[in-house]
Amino acid sequence: MTNKASEEALGVLHSRVADVLIENLETEEGPSPSIISIAVKFLKDNEITCSIKDNQDMDSLNEALKAKRAKRKLRIVGDEE
């Protein structure tokens, strides 16, 4: 006999895990590396992604990373413009 959780129960669990991760990411002292790692895995496991072109914050981060690479004179394959 298999006792499977209902879709509703899994949805509640998923939501609560997300809430706990958000709370830990928003602490005054900042998230620990392990919380960041868990959050990244949670996003990856749930196939959550973002489009840099549609997200101003991510676009700004991308530009900052490009500037750092240029300063260090690193060339990343596929990062040519």
- Overall pLDDT: 81
* Protein structure class: mainly alpha
E-strand count: 0
Q: Which bin fits the share of residues in helices? A: 55-70%
Outline, from the CA principal axes?
A: elongated
Count up the domains: 2
H and E string: HHH
Which blocks of ≥5 consecutive residues have pLDDT under 50?
A: none
Main pleated-sheet profile: none
The share of residues in extended strands comes to under 5%
**End-to-end span in angstroms?**
58 Å
Task: Using the CA coordinates, give the radius of gyration.
Answer: 18 Å
Number of helices: 3
Structure description:
The protein has 81 residues and is mostly helical. It is built from three helices and no strands. The longest helix is centred in the first third of the chain and has 19 residues, at 7-25. It is elongated and about 55 Å long. The model has no long low-confidence stretch (mean pLDDT 81).
Briefly summarize what is shown:
By secondary structure, this protein is mainly α. The chain has two domains: 1-49, no CATH class; 50-81. Helices cover 60% and strands 0% of the residues.
Topology:
Layout: H1 7-25, H2 33-45, H3 56-72
